[in-house]
Amino acid sequence: MYIIIYRLVDLINNGFGLRVLIVIMLGMIQFIFGIDSLAKVVVSRMLLAMPSFAFYLILIIVITISGDKIETTGLKTEKLLYTLKMDDQGFVNENPSIQDQHNDFITFLEKLRPVITVSRFVSVNRNLLPKLLSTIATYTIVLIQLNSMKS
Q1: pLDDT tens digits for 17-66?
Q2: Phi, psi of 122 (to 5 degrees)
Q3: What sections of the protein cross the membrane (predicted)?
Q4: Which domain holds residue 35?
Q5: In angstroms, rounded to a whole number, what is the distance separating the alpha carbons of residues 86 and 95?
Q6: Cα–Cα distance between 131 and 140 in angstroms, integer?
Q7: β-pairing verdict for 122-123 and 117-118
Q8: Which of 85, 114, 118, 140 pairs as cysteine with 21 (C-beta 3.0–4.6 A)?
Q9: Segment holding 123, helix H or strand E
Q10: CB neighbours (10 Å) of residue 118?
């Protein structure tokens, strides 16, 4: 069952990894246009960029929450398997073949945990949003400094 879940996540990564990267990049570009318009005080261009930025931001948040849920479920499954292994009275410790399969499954789970990635470059989880926000904040600060130097 777990191998099916892992292969499904791998299929999602292969099929949609580039598309997730494009969505994140489009969201960043839309926000950069909005910040740039705000710094230049071009209200009409800023108003055009904000609705599409809001759409991409919501899409990025939904993708991030989904990726985090998949990764968290993998961690919970791993903890559950360790709990079963430590149980002295459990079914796992009675049968040696089941114990071997259980150990193999734990090893497999440690090495190949399902994680949604952006083209196998950045994992999409709850740590992605602060990275994006810090990147946007850094760009905003640099843009404001460059525009103040021009004036």
Answers
A1: 667 777 777 777 777 776 666 666 665 666 666 777 777 778 888 888 88
A2: -130, 130
A3: 16-35, 47-67
A4: 2-150
A5: 14
A6: 14
A7: antiparallel
A8: 118
A9: strand 122-123
A10: 22
The predicted structure's pLDDT at residue 39:
61
Give the span between the Cα atoms of 42 and 2, in whole angstroms: 53
pLDDT band at 91 (very low <50, low <70, confident <90, very high): low
CA 149 and chain centroid, separation: 37
Name the band, by pLDDT with cuts 50, 70 and 90, for residue 82.
Answer: confident
- Token readout for 14 is 């292969």
> Per the structure, how many domains does the chain have?
1
pLDDT at 118: 73
Count of all residues that appear for the chain in the document: 151
Two structure tokens written together for 117: 């990635």
Environment class of 41 (CB within 10 Å of its CB; exposed 0-12, middle 13-18, buried 19+): exposed
